[in-house]
Amino acid sequence: MEKLLVFLHTSNLNFVPSLYNAPSILTLFFLFIGCQLKSQTPTFEQDQEILSKVKDLHILKTENALVAVSGRLQCRVFTSSSKGLKGKSYGWFNREAILDGSFKRRFSSLGGEDRMWFGPQYGKYNVFFERGSTFEDEHMQISPDLDTLSFKVIAKNDKMIESSGRMRIKNYQDYVFDIDLHRRVAILEKERIEQNLEISIQENVYHVGFETETEMTNIGTNEWSRETGLISIWILSCIIPTDSTVAIIPTRGQIESVTNYFTPLDDSRMQIKDGVVHYKADANYLNKIGILPENTVPIFGSYSPELNLLTIVEFTFEDSPLYMNSQKTKQTDPYGGDVINIFNDGTTATAGPFGPFYELESSSSAKELKKGEKIIHVSRTYHFEGDAQSLDEIALATLGIRLSDRVKF
After folding, report:
1. Which domain range does residue 117 map to?
2. Is a pLDDT exceeding 90 seen at residue 379?
3. Are 282 and 357 in contact, with CB atoms under 8 Å apart?
């Protein structure tokens, strides 16, 4: 069995040496289980047992739906289920870091079904490299506050949890952002899901939905400006893959290509058909794609026929010219970045795999904030598990395409 690299971020090929201490037999067992997830998805109950090591783990509940969150770990959603404790656990998180306790020292290795980061990752205004360093992944660093700062839980009940913390984030130009972060996670009732997506959920379709609201406020003395660099809220969602999983992204305008990262891409892994991007998300080829704002519709998703699972993500979107550019290659416009990204796990000559997982990602626009001004980004994740015909109807209503018409890579 190949040793799993420690996960800092889907496109961060760095690692933390301290996590490579000799693992226990139990840790090795769960590492082996992690390698087999595509053939046997864990139950929510099994993952909850692992997550019991997180002291403040909080379970949101409604009917058969469950969502596991940690308020102190920056209001991170670990995973969810639509069928209660015995149902499939949909999110990927770093089980090794939980089992060996290393998550208590560093949060960035945890993954999870919804977590908060900041963009951009590369470029002249990035927040992941020290000034003057090259953009090779061995030089990538996670801002200490993002990596280790515990949030204060403000409120919680069976339906929601919210927490907050203050961070200092430094960019490649040595500009320091003093920010107040507030995160709220809420589980969504069936009626709210139907209202949000304008659908009717049949009785034979199991469902879970949750909403995260991330609020970032400038609490520094200076106004943020384009000249010294801006930052955006970046929401990332690690999902358990299968060999036939396809990400489906409806678009607008004339789209002929996507932003491509890290590795070559051809029609065996990505195709654009009638304005819809189809992307193979099987965690077998390390790659990432992006959708520019002029092509963005603020809803996208994925489908796994093996799991009879349709996942939908919708998010708040501003038709703004300021989206942070995270391309590693030379940039002509640092504010000409993507809104939607899909990351696919895999192996290259020097790195991977990290999960296995694929990621559904969205970013807020960037803004020149005065002191006290804020950016708010809302993301909603829905999972529907049921028969193909029922899921077909939901996909047509939300993504504008029948699942039976998806590209089958």
Report:
1. 17-21+112-151+163-405
2. yes
3. no
pLDDT of residue 11: 39
Cis peptide before 23 (omega within 30 of 0): no
pLDDT at 71: 98
Distances (CA, A) of 214 to 25, 222, 315: 38, 22, 11
Amino acid at 327: Q
Task: State pLDDT tens for residues 107-155.
Answer: 887 999 999 999 999 999 999 999 999 988 788 889 999 999 999 999 9
Instruction: Residue 315: name the closest of 250, 253, 380 by CA.
Output: 380
Rounded to a whole number of angstroms, the CA Rg of the chain reads 20
Cα–Cα distance, 347 to 4 (Å, whole number):
10
Picking from 365, 386, 361, the residue whose alpha carbon sits closest to that of residue 374 is: 365
DSSP code per residue over 335-346: TB--SEEEEE--
CB 185 within 8 A of CB 79: no
**Residue 12 belongs to a domain:** no
Provide the number of structural domains found in the chain. Answer: 1
Give residue-wise pLDDT tens across range 173-221.
999 999 999 999 999 999 999 999 999 999 999 999 999 999 999 999 9
Residue 59 lies in a domain: no
Residues 326-349: b if buried by 16+ CB within 10 A, e if exposed = bbeeebeebbbbbbbbbbbbbeee
Q: Is residue 52 part of a domain?
A: no
Q: Domain for residue 175, yes or no?
A: yes
pLDDT of residue 138: 81
Q: Contact at 8 Å (CB) between 206 and 83?
A: yes
Rounded CA separation 270/246 (Å): 9
